[in-house]
Design a protein that fits this description.
The chain has 188 residues and is an alpha/beta fold. It has helices at 31-39, 73-83, 102-109, 137-145, 151-156, 178-184; strands at 3-8, 25-26, 29-30, 45-49, 62-63, 87-92, 116-120, 125-132, 160-164. Helix 2 (73-83) packs antiparallel against helix 4 (137-145). The longest helix is centred in the middle third of the chain and has 11 residues, at 73-83.
């Protein structure tokens, strides 16, 4: 089974003072390098979804949003569905401690009729950290063209599954503020 991965790095970083979060120094590298290292062994192909050409230095193909205007993570997920092959794994660039068995557990939890399988950490759903079936692309494009933006709303409109990651919930902590940066550098 071919898995295409996309790391979503197109956010505006408002809570980080407008800083491009993926390029923030983190644990001896950049935040995006930490996520790349976690995701690369788990996928066949990996894209970086970002409008920032500076990310080209990481040696991965850059993927522009399928619908321009920086409208949110779903535009990057749609771009990966349009350009990838097989199932698409989406992850944000600000979750540096993703587990090494993320994809295998998502695949195991995804039933044959599911259109998306999202991480659930025992307390909350992480709809951006998900495995997407390519058949959802036309509906996602329509949702975005109609003005839809909320990932969770779109996920709930699909036949969706939840993968239980309650045994490693701290692996899904994301970095939104300078305080988060200090806390997460200590580990999950």
């Amino acid at each position: 089974m071919h898995i295409t991965g996309v790391i979503l790095a197109g956010g505006l970083g408002r809570r980080m003072g407008g800083t491009d979060k993926g390029l923030i120094p983190f644990a001896g590298a950049t935040l995006i390098e930490q996520v790349i290292a976690r995701v690369t062994p788990q996928v066949n192909t990996l894209f970086l979804n970002t409008p920032n050409e500076e990310y080209a230095r990481f040696g991965l193909p850059l993927l522009a949003d399928a619908i321009p205007g920086r409208i949110g993570p779903l535009a990057g997920i749609l771009a990966a569905l349009d350009n990838g092959r097989g199932l698409v794994l989406s992850v944000p660039c600000d979750v540096p401690h993703l587990p090494p068995d993320l994809v295998s557990r998502l695949v195991s939890a995804m039933t044959p009729d599911a259109e998306v399988c999202c991480v659930h950490d025992g307390s909350r759903l992480h709809p951006v950290i998900a495995l997407w079936h390519p058949a959802v692309a036309p509906r996602l494009r329509s949702y975005l063209e109609r003005g839809g933006r909320r990932v969770q709303d779109f996920v709930e409109s699909l036949r969706n599954q939840r993968a239980d990651f309650s045994d490693c919930a701290p692996c899904f902590a994301n970095l939104n503020t300078p305080d988060d940066l200090q806390r997460l550098e200590k580990g999950p």
